[in-house]
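Re: folding output
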Amino acid sequence: MIGTPEQDAEGLLKFSEAVDQLCGIEITGRGVVGALYAAARARQGEPLAMRAARLLKGAVRGPGDVVLIATGLPTFAWFLTEQDGPVGAATLARALVMAYGVKPIIVTNPGDEAICRTAVTAAGLYCLPLERAMQLPTTAAVVPLPVDPDEAAKAADELCDRVKPRAFVAIERPGANEKGHYHSASGRRFTDYCAKVEALLPHLRAAGAPIIGIGDGGNELGCSVIRDTVVAAVPGAAKCRCGCDGSVVPAAEVDALVIAAISNWGAYGIEACLAALEGRAEILHSPETDTRVHSLTAAAMANNDGPGLLDPGTDAVPARVHASFIDVLGWMVGAAGLDPGRLYRHPRYPWLYEAGGEPRG
């Protein structure tokens, strides 16, 4: 932004407040987002999307650093993921590549790999096997973790030893409750279909890497931050329907929680805040890209979580509405007064530069 440091700070605060307000509009009619957002904001003390964006910016040291993005919430009765999650994971991966030249690795459930690969390529990134992805710019990888806890722990050890992740983001990603089971927002158990991504978290904590959760209903990884409010405000959250006598709230602790009306919108809000922090509007993906990601991810068999059809959209909201949301968010980014000079003071395309700032080749 353009102005004195004090003016810039004030402008960023106003901008990030507006981003949170937009992302929290109660569009799905569930009636719980306001209470969940208020609790998360009170607990964390600052606008949620900007808090997450600052953590990501502070964690990434240069091109080639790895950010893990976990997603994939099984839907009944197919036990394949919905579009809420993979779409936001893919566009956030794109934003992190545009901003910092990172290597995004999407971590998901066995069976959801094709959906996530499709989302990533629709967002504009190459998606290749892990070893090849680590060698190339603008490239992501999709890695399934096992559903068996012991196998997941071994796979997490191997992955983290290989890539040394700098940050972790979970988007619309269920987590194990206090009894060790995974649930839908309505309290149905799908433990046997969920990769045990929590096995990654000890590695991240040991490395001091931030752990960020994005959710919209209380059963997503990260909602332990507001457990009491979820149990009080979300119908059926206090006791699941599966017989484990636990809540639907994941138990794993995180460093930041972003609550939005739709989890993908929380990812979009982080993108917008990254664009404002870096002074580069193109970090936020376009409405056209959003439509493409939704459409192709639906064709890859990701549900809209509506009538059980593979129509493009998220949480029964059609893709055209999500594209309009990005259009509004983009106008807000443009109105924030981004500093065009930053395009020349910092590399526009960081993946084309070595760690020391020298152009490749």
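--- second protein (sequence, then structure) ---
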Amino acid sequence: MSMGIATTDSGAAPRAVARNGAPSSLESFFGGLRPHWHSRWAWDHYEPTILGLAHQFGLRRVCEIGGGRDPLFSAAQAARHGLDIVVNDIDAGELALTPAGLKTARFDIAGDLSEPDVRRGGYDLMVSRMVFEHVHDVERAWSNIHALLAPGGVALCFFPTLWAPVFALNHLLPEKASRAIVHALFPARRDGGGDPKFPAFYDHCRGSRERMQPMLNRAGFADVHIQRFWGHGYFDRMPGLRQADHAFNALAAKIGWDLVTTYAYAVVRKDKI
């Protein structure tokens, strides 16, 4: 299936430009990207979308929330893109596994921001990938993001959503049973592997703008974009079920059924004043 994306001449980063040349709104930016409905687009274009936002809105100081052992960019990649990156995590053990050359900051994104590593107003761009489903108090996390962003700063959080059937099952099953299923399907996610499973709460993890915007407005953001995605790869090795699930998600995407989105980008921009 086609999953085209608007890019710069170098092909490195997408962008959307207002007619007068000034930075566009988030809605305009994503309108220029023309994202595909399938979540494969979200995974494949997460990095280019971040680079596009940085280019479009002039964002340099980046904090990756919950980056820990697996940050998006290496130190060399950050330098190549002109980004000053700080990798955040709540867990000192995860930060100890952060690749060499990257700065780190230990604090709880949903906490009281009293930790020594906190830099209020210190970031132009904050991003996270598969983190917010593990946060107990997501509304407080977004309020903290507002405090940590500089005026005009942008945040993009990429997370799985309820009530997609695969994540609804993960949410409703006891953690022991959910963990056993994930470990059976994905050996790398077993304890001691490179991608361990953490408990998921799915607080405010929805693909509906109607559900998300009031909470994000309360956190202080007026410029809000929710990019919805459907589909996943959990059934890729299960013929029959894979095709049925794809047909279900394609139909849900066609009619815009927010209740069963699978993933979403929640993107916000802090007012300049």
